[in-house]
Write a structure and sequence with these properties.
- The protein is mainly alpha-helical and 272 residues long.
- The protein has two domains: 125 residues, no CATH class; 107 residues, no CATH class.
- It is 56% helix and 4% strand.
- The protein has twelve helices and three strands, in the order αβββααααααααααα.
- Strands 1-2-3 form a three-stranded antiparallel beta sheet.
- A hairpin with a 2-residue loop joins β2 and β3.
- The chain is globular.
- The two termini are 53 Å apart.
Length: 272
């Protein structure tokens, strides 16, 4: 929840504000205010855990708020959006000039209920969720929180993630560590190669790093390794120095320029 409250990730706004992509109303740490309940069937026969995709109104009430208050916030949002447009609305967020519609504690309650939903659905996405490390569980839950049902489109990621859960006999101890390291390296690279990671590289570095089975030993190091892969260091091209004769000729030519012409040329260089 601390990471999700971070402004580098979902943000933290105590009034309704427009989604940057869809202009639909969000609040708090990106809680959607007008999403309808969604049918999300479990298509993996090896995973007994169902998905839950309630409406915004159902989650709102589960957090302890009444429906009338939600409608008032939505009505005010529609009036603001009509009067300001999305660009002015975004500027007001940046300037922290929106009138708060939730307290810090109330926004935290909404975040908590959303995080619980994300954890439930993360278990439905991953057959072996309960055997993951705590950071890995957190990473998958964060992905579900951020993407919702759109995570279904990450077919390669979900396929690699669940690959070892259906393996046959366990490997020998010496090979097990190599297999596990290769598995999680492959999981990370399915995300590193995604458009999501390229577009939201700061957020992606944090989340992808958590899939490293050794993340807990060196979190910063794991994040740096992912960030370096997302943003490889630019290749430096060293320019060749011109031959000494060319430098000497250029200097002599500059020194022999006529007075008036040379002065005008120098003056022009100063202006530019």
């Amino acid at each position: 929840m601390d990471v999700l409250r971070d402004r580098r990730h979902e943000g933290w706004v105590l009034a309704a504000y427009p989604d940057p992509k869809t202009s639909r109303p969000l609040i708090g740490a990106g809680f959607s205010l007008d999403v309808a309940a969604t049918d999300h069937p479990q298509t993996d026969p090896l995973n007994p855990h169902p998905f839950i995709e309630p409406s915004s109104a159902q989650l709102w009430q589960a957090a302890g708020f009444d429906a009338e208050r939600l409608q008032r916030i939505l009505d005010q949002y529609d009036r603001n959006l009509s009067a300001w447009g999305t660009k002015r609305y975004r500027r007001k967020i940046t300037a922290h000039s929106l009138t708060p519609e939730l307290t810090e504690e109330e926004a935290t309650r909404l975040l908590r209920i959303s995080a619980i939903q994300a954890i439930v659905n993360a278990r439905a996405y991953c057959r072996d969720f309960d055997q993951l490390t705590a950071p890995q569980q957190m990473a998958l839950s964060h992905l579900v929180f951020q993407m919702g049902v759109n995570l279904e489109e990450f077919v390669q990621f979900l396929g690699v993630l669940n690959g070892n859960a259906v393996s046959g006999d366990p490997p020998q101890p010496s090979a097990a560590a190599v297999t596990e390291a290769d598995h999680w390296n492959a999981v990370q690279h399915t995300l590193i190669d995604s458009q999501w990671a390229r577009r939201y590289s700061g957020r992606a570095s944090t989340v992808i790093a958590m899939f490293d089975p050794d993340y807990i030993q060196d979190p910063r190091g794991a994040e740096r390794r992912v960030a370096a892969t997302l943003h490889p260091a630019p290749v430096k091209h060293h320019r060749k120095a011109p031959p000494a004769a060319s430098l000497r000729a250029a200097n002599e030519s500059h020194g022999k320029a006529p007075g008036k012409r040379g002065s005008a040329s120098q003056h022009k260089r100063k202006l530019t």
